[in-house]
Amino acid sequence: MVPEIGTFLPELVARRGRSDRRHDVYLEEVGGRRLDWAEADREGDAWASQLSAAGVGEGDRVLTMLPTCATGVTVWVGVGRLGAIEVPINTELVGTLLQHVVDTAGATAAIVSVRFLDVVVPCLRAAGVRHLFVPDADPSDRAVHAGRAALASVVGGPPELVAPVVHRRCAPWDTALILFTSGTTGPSKGVVVPWGQMEETCIGSIPLDDLGADDVYYCPFGMAHVTARSAAYLMAMLGGRLVLRERFSTSSYLTDVADHGCTTTVMMGTMAHFLAQQPPSDEDAATPLR
To answer: What per-residue confidence (pLDDT) applies to 44?
Structure first.
């Protein structure tokens, strides 16, 4: 199958969500949610709608601190439809390193999983971020109330379509993400990643002529890293399925791959080392990975 090139993630999801394949699954969490293209498209619009109602618009930055999950992809779609810029935060950051990223991002709003509120809300308050969304929290959650006491606006629960959304078409030079470096040689630096570069990363790092809509990509990588983002983008280009696990697990890796029919993935050197140390099994050769 020839991938869609020159059309970027927010529009790709919209096209597939309104096509005859709209009920094919796009996002599948290990042990969690499954969203087809139509559901991912609607959730992207809901995020765009809620963020727009909070005053987020073209060029504004939106901080995200989310585990590897379907929401991490639909948020990106929604932010992109406004022409805004997502700035994902490494979920392992705390203290001064976290405050540095929040300060540097210059965001007007943040979307944060409830589990990270204790560490990030003080940083958001210090940086002047006014609006906070907590998609996996009940509106009555105590952590949400704590956020309301610290920030101007806090919304708990899944996104809602509060008004129709006009999609801003992305250009190759528009910023898709600002990804912060790991900080091994000093304070983390924000790297501006345009939509065109995201596309080129997918085109140049994996053999597209051997992939198609029947492929299933296994992604146990953090949402603050380009590896997870390019996986979501590649499957949108091809019309394939993305299987998301919150973090790499040596013991679960091949089981996940088999259970979800994963055909392709990226493997870091340390991952290969850990997997190679596992005892041999009669099931090793039965993997659907190609």
So the answer is: 97
Say if pTM beats, i.e. exceeds, 0.90: yes
What is the C-alpha separation between 50 and 60, in angstroms, rounded? 14
Nearest of 228, 282, 240 to residue 72 by alpha carbon? 228
Q: What is the pLDDT of residues 212-263, one digit of tens each?
A: 999 999 999 999 999 999 999 999 999 999 999 999 989 899 999 999 999 9
Rounded Cα gap, residues 78 and 62, in angstroms: 11
Q: Where are the beta strands (DSSP E) in 136-269?
A: 153-156, 175-180, 190-194, 216-219, 241-244, 264-265
Q: Residues near 110 by Cβ (< 8 Å), separated by ≥ 6?
A: 62, 63, 64, 65, 120, 124, 129, 131, 132, 133
The pair of structure tokens assigned to 215 is 């492929």
Token digits of residue 31: 């042990």
For the ranges 18-32, 104-118, 182-196, 225-239, the lowest mean pLDDT is seen at 182-196
How far apart are the C-alpha atoms of 165 and 167, rounded to whole Å? 6
